[in-house]
Amino acid sequence: MQLKPTQPQLIYIAIFTLLTIAINIPQPAYSQEQKWVEETFNLLDSLASEQRMIPVSNDSALDTEIPGDSVKLIFTRLVKVRGHEILSPYTSIMCGYDAVRQGTHIPVRCYRVLSQEGYDYRISATVYDLNGRQGIPADRQKRNGALQAGHAKELQLIIENVEAVGTIGHLWTRVTNGEK
Asked: Suppose 146 and one of 34, 65, 125, 173 were both cysteines; which one would form an S-S bond, judging by CB atoms 3.0 to 4.6 Å apart?
């Protein structure tokens, strides 16, 4: 003999299923995110306060004839802070440079870090050569004064400020006193 499900039985099954799901939900994402954001800010702030020279390399060539262009750098080594791996090798750093018509170095300012794991950090950072001079060393100067630099140069990056952390598409800024 087969039993036909009735309306009340289906409702009880639905309620039981929802209760089972609700009981097995992990810690709310908001508190997990809040903890991760705070820890990440603390680690990156430690890196910034140390003024540590972080080894990087430029992924593309530069030509200052075109103003407002950007360049991608990559971390060449694992960066640890207080025993925590914070920046992995080959993580991308997005930077910008201006149309420079003189000098031996192209000044570069970095503003964003994008990891292969999907982390997104908004930073303020400056690029230096291996001798501690600001900018990427130019390989040659064009007739009009524009500087050019090839790719794969060994460089150093100093992070000065951390403005936001998160994942691609979802960033958090610092909560200051009085904000919620």
From this structure: 65
